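Researcher: Sequence recovery benchmark, item below. Answer with residues only.
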C-alpha cells in the first residue's frame, strides 16, 4: 500500500501478502522454509529477492513501545 510509504516486497501485492500471513501467521515462518510454502515459483522468487525489504518493512510498521519519553511536569494532569 503506497499510502503508508512502507515498501514491502516488490511484485507481491496486498492480496498475496495477506493470504501468506493468514496461512503462515508471520514473516519468520514464511521465510523459515520458503521452498515448502504454498505459492507460485514467481512469488517465491520475489520473496527471496525481497527478503531484506520484507524485514525492513516489518520493522518500519512496528510501533516501538519501549521508547523513553520524558514528559515535563507542566504537561501532566493534576493529581485528583
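Model:
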Amino acid at each position: 500500500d503506497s499510502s503508508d510509504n512502507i515498501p514491502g516486497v516488490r511484485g507481491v501485492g496486498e492480496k498475496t501478502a495477506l493470504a501468506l500471513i493468514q496461512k503462515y501467521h508471520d514473516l519468520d515462518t514464511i521465510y523459515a522454509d520458503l521452498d515448502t510454502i504454498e505459492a507460485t515459483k514467481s512469488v517465491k522468487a520475489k520473496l527471496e529477492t525481497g527478503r531484506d525489504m520484507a524485514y525492513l518493512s516489518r520493522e518500519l510498521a512496528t510501533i516501538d513501545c519501549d521508547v523513553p519519553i520524558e514528559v515535563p511536569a507542566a504537561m501532566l494532569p493534576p493529581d485528583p
